[in-house]
């Protein structure tokens, strides 16, 4: 029988190999919640919530108390009718990382029941994807060293964190560009600039012949007008991350013509909204990237299967599991960075 018999939450802590610094935030470790859904036949589905207080106001200390409430809401539902479970979890929109973990664990349990991998349940559009790797904020010297290491180890797309110091950020891009010729760059300001600073940043890079492939979240998450101003004054594509949490945010961004790219993260949207966002963005002829918070291989597994299944993404920023210390790799995919393959 494919009915849900039990759901458990477990807190897990992972240290970063190197403290991860982005605009307004420094992390030494990630604290996540692993969820396990067990069906009456004994199939187990695994998911992971990696909450972000900065983006979604979520804390593990709050989320852990949802365990009995979610058990009460879902026990007895059949994972083969997974949309019913998704609809219940949509009510938990205020806790999007838990919504993501439960929705994914449901698909994972279904996958075990029917013997078909999750990426195929979601469409099986691709067999492999390529991830980027991120350079966090640091001294110019260290950022260039990190970018070189990433490029030399085979990554073709480098993501660079900026947003705390415009003058230094331009110097960083200049130096990284000189040292990693041929790489593609995603530059993420994590809301650090004003619209005017963001425009000055991209215009200066353009004048130096530095091309960036995507300029992520230059301004405050609530400043949709600011995003639009940057978009129409930038020679490079502009994307929304912190501004694009739910499908309703994305509908507004599309209507306003505020961005070229949407960064989907399961931790902001869950599987249900992420599926809706994929179709909305494709309908609007805009482009998609997929990103992560502080997921381990259990959580990155969710996004890898989602990306392989939908085949919807131009860029995959699924590197958190490469930045965290884990005892064992537990993804149901082949990790050979920068390539992730379906099993
Ligand atoms: Mg971002």
From TrEMBL:
Pfam families in the record:
MR_MLE_C (PF13378), MR_MLE_N (PF02746)
Q: Which domain of life is it from?
A: Bacteria
Alphabetical UniProt keywords:
Isomerase, Magnesium, Metal-binding
Uppermost EC category: isomerase
Hey, which family's this protein in? Belongs to the mandelate racemase/muconate lactonizing enzyme family.
Q: Which cofactor does it need?
A: Mg(2+)
Descriptive protein name: Dipeptide epimerase
EC number from the UniProt entry: 5.1.1.-
The UniProt record lists the Mandelate racemase/muconate lactonizing enzyme C-terminal domain at: 140-237
